[in-house]
Amino acid sequence: MACATVLDGTRAGDSINVNGACLTATEVVGDGFAADVMGETLARTALGDLQPGAVVNLERALAVGGRLGGHLVQGHVDAVGEVLAVEPRDEGGWTVMRVGVPAAVAPYLVEKGSITVDGTSLTVMDVEEQAFSVGLIPHTLAVTVLGHRRVGDRVNLEADVIAKYVERLLGGGGGSPYTEPHPQ
Predict the structure, then answer these.
(1) pLDDT tens string 96-116
(2) 3-state secondary structure string, the chain?
């Protein structure tokens, strides 16, 4: 992979997000890096669809104390979705992308909430039963892999981690150690 900017200061063992999947750089040479990808990663992401020379989104891990833009993105792909529509809009050069999602991800989608598509943090415009739409401005289309996506392409999806934790806490049924009476 040719990615000199992303590799600035990167060493073997560091994390690099590739199309939304967090991978460990096993070797850094020149303007590229190597990463091992296990079967679990290939089964749960669309990385196995990539061909040599494919354009991908790359992002370094957030350094502690760095700026946080968008939402919390971990690089833990929740599911693979399918691009259902790519509709350019005349006014302003923006595009609406509609993505189908598996039933397991659908509950985490809310209008004006966050979703990550192939590693790009986006705001959900519209939610259907098993699909959502996002608006893509010209800049996003130009600097991410989303500008190359077509109907039928598989994309990696990461739901908002805060929504997942809230669901886990509310659905757990167990008491909280912070609200339960403590023995004296």
Answers:
(1) 999 999 998 999 899 998 899
(2) CCCHHHHCCCCCCCEEEECCEEEEEEEEECCEEEECCCHHHHHHCCHHHCCCCCCCCEEECCCCCCCCCCCCCCCCCCEEEEEEEEEECCHHHCEEEEEECCCCCHHHCCCCCEEEECCEEEEEEEECCCEEEEEECHHHHHHCHHHHCCCCCEEEEEECHHHHHHHHHHHCCCCCCCCCCCCC
Starting at the edge strand found earlier in the chain, the sheet holding 58-60 runs 32-35, 21-29, 15-18, 58-60
pTM greater than 0.85 (yes/no)? no
